[in-house]
Amino acid sequence: MTTRIETNDSSLPLRRDVKSLGHILGEILVHHGGTELLDKVEKLRGMAKTLRNCFDEQIYNELKEEIVNLDTPMRKQVIRAFSIYFHLINAAESNHRIRRRREYQLQDNHVVQPSSIESAILSLKENEIDVTTIQNVLNTLSLELIITAHPTEATKRSVIEIQKRISTILKSLDNNMLTKKERKKLEDSLLNDVTILWQTDELRHRKPTVMDEVRNGLYYFDQTFFDVLPEIHQDLEEGLVEQFPGHNWEVPNFLRFGSWIGGDRDGNPNVTPEVTWETLERHRDLAVKKYKEALVEVMKRFSHSTTRVDVSKELLENVEKEEAAYLENEKKWPVENEVYRRKIAVILARLKAVGKSEIGYQTSEELLKDLYLIQNSINNHQPALRELKMLKKLIRQVQLFGFHLATLDIRNHSGEHEAAITEILRKVKVTDDYTALSEEEKIKTLEAVLKDPRPVLLLNEDYSKETQEMIKVFTMIKKAHDTFGRKSILVYLVSMTQAASDLLEVLVLAKEAGIYRLHADGTVESHLNVAPLLETIDDLTAGPEILETLFKMDVYRNHLSIHGDSQEIMLGYSDGSKDGGTLTANWKLYKAQLEIHDMAKRHEIGLKFFHGRGGSLGRGGGPLNRSILSQPAETIGDGVKITEQGEVLSSRYLIEDIAYRSLEQATSTLLEASVNLSEESEQQHIRETAWENAMEEISKVSLKKYQSLVFEDPDFLTYFTEATPLNELAELNIGSRPMKRKNRNRFEDLRAIPWVFAWTQSRQLLPAWYAAGTGLESFISKDVENLKLLQRMYQEWPFFRSTVDNLQMALMKADITTAKEYISLVKDKEIADRIFSNIVEEYEATKAILLKVTGDEELLDHTPNIKESVHRRNPYVDPLNFLQVELIKELREQEEPNEELLNEVLLTISGIAAGLRNTG
């Protein structure tokens, strides 16, 4: 039965769906592997569940023995059964999120869902915020979400799409008005899709190319963003009109998506200028395709006849003129008095020719002008606005996406620019060895080049392949601006920024390509923002000084003046956490924002902080709205930019309803926080000096503890490499980028994603929590009042609350009992026991201190839905972990590569990632 169950337990419908999907999976297991397969899966599941309820040494050993004794064919089927089960749970939980949202909307007394657009607007009204303040905030509101190709999505696209179909069917089955026949049809479809899921290969058998990643990213624009973004804007506008009538509300385009995919060159040799150019073409092609589809729908409805309505004279004259100019070789609209359809036929003809011939639109502004022409005419005779919503939505889409679809950020490592500049300056005899210069000498040299309008590059000089490639990147950007518009590429990000010269080098390369120009009269043209990426603990500490050096330079201030006296700064969460531990990294990031904000304010420079958050907790992950609130309050008004990547894209944006909910939460949070800031409401954003001092003290102790293990223990790298599936991850084929920046076996060269991914798989999750407990405990032990201080910080300071809640989540997903299995993979038992004991001791200390701070009896007591989800999954992840350990052990003992064993290991990796909903 699927009748709604009236109960206080909101998770009952979810459990019902999970149970139903489990039964279907059971049928499929029997069909493909007989009752023996189902019985084996059920036995392992039952034992794991029993152990979770009450640990029993005998059952624990029996479970391990069952797993060791599995024969190869059965073992692979068992791995797949547990993995598929997680994909089904993920689909059911996605539908349950939609269900909960609908239940709020169906409440008779109209209970408003927290963190919704409606709740934010009602809050503004209840707090008597005047309309002028709200409109001023709207005019400066900015949220940019940047999708990246960071390899953190272990699940194949085909599997993700099946999950989406299953979730959609479950949503349809919630309809109490279904007939028996309709329900039967949906149940059959559900069985078919679960069967297809079982029969689909979960693994990629080749590494994706960059263009594969581009296609994956564009999928979300095609399926979700193109419709959801205008809907968010429209709902915000309509909500304001309803609650604050009489004001002519105008909601600017504050919410946008950008991309790194095809532009992120840092450590990825496959991202060439040619690949970036093809990416930009794909962006434009999709935008045009979506506009054509929308216009066809508009045309169906805009059958207004000049025999019934008076269209504007301007439109009539325009249609007559443009039909002659643009439809010479096209079939004209057959009904002469249907002027809107005639105009749309012209628009479609011009869209079809974009990028192909001169009759095509050269800019999206030209398309907007034509759409406004139709809108202005219809406003003269349209009695109701309902029919206009389709046209209004299309106009908003063109405003948001243009012909570039998504602004593409270019990113590269500072060392690449320095190498190119060194060669160029040596060839033209400016300096023999630029790299050997002091920072002061570098700045002086680069300033001189930027102040000289003459080019530095020699036209026929024989530069190295690497330098030629770097020059091609900038000439490609100039060509992109001319072809796709300047919005196509707005920002150039400099990874591993360590000095002011790192940004000036990019400006010099931009100057040589004509993107930055100094005219004879002294005026400057600059069409590319240059943004530092501050990643390591040292770089974050040095960040304010680096930027102040730039802000004091006339040549750089002239560049910024072209960009509205605003500087974008990217903050890297991954490498900072890898470098200093999650607690220290988060505090250093917060502190850097405060210091840079105050310094920029003195120089009258606006800022935009770009948060390079990952999906996992060890890389700054967490809910989007909580990420916004955890920033210093005074920086929110500067605009917010955040990366979205890997499994985050599919979990947040695969399904339109969930995408809407995630984006409305972010919008609601940003709107309320910005209004509070503009009102200078101190009680809303308290941050005491004592709190900052406490975090500084905690951070220092935590950093020392973290680095004593990760950098100072000579055996740590051995433990990490052997006690996790790090080396096996490289074969998973989830991204086009290499795991290491350089082909060296050094910790510093290992990327943060495999660092986090490997720890997550082994259930230790060390990057997400390690050393936090030592820092907190040390602070509390110094004064009996310090615990009360931390408790108040948790209640009143969003940053600290977010930090503590993420630590709780990390400890919930970690599992010491399961993690202990992985130490059997370490060859030196003394190393294994010593380091694992250190980890266990810190885990227990961190858990104990977090419960003291929160005042809860168990972790995540304040978020029962998340807590239940983790508990629901754990018993099913455990067998996959046990299997993974046995398989890795066997694989590493092989003298020759064993493809079958490796595939089974990869299946466990994919299944555990699906179960924990986290990779890197």
Radius of gyration: 29 Å
Which structural class matches the secondary elements?
Answer: mainly alpha
Strand content: 5-15%
Dominant shape: globular
Number of strands: 10
Question: How is the largest sheet built, in terms of strand order?
Answer: 2-1-10-9-8-7-4-3
Calculate the terminal CA-CA distance, rounded to whole Å. 39 Å
Largest sheet: 8 strands, parallel
The percent of residues in helical segments reads 55-70%
Mean pLDDT equals 89
SS element count, helices: 36
Question: Poorly predicted ranges (pLDDT <50, ≥5 residues)?
Answer: 1-8, 681-685
Family: Belongs to the PEPCase type 1 family.
Cofactor: Mg(2+)
Catalytic activity: oxaloacetate + phosphate = phosphoenolpyruvate + hydrogencarbonate
Keywords: Carbon dioxide fixation, Lyase, Magnesium
Describe it:
Helices cover 63% and strands 6% of the residues. The chain is globular and about 85 Å long. Helix 35 (864-892) runs antiparallel to helix 36 (899-916). The protein has an eight-stranded parallel sheet with strand order 2-1-10-9-8-7-4-3. A two-stranded antiparallel sheet has the order 5-6. It has 920 residues and is mainly alpha-helical. It is built from 36 helices and ten strands.
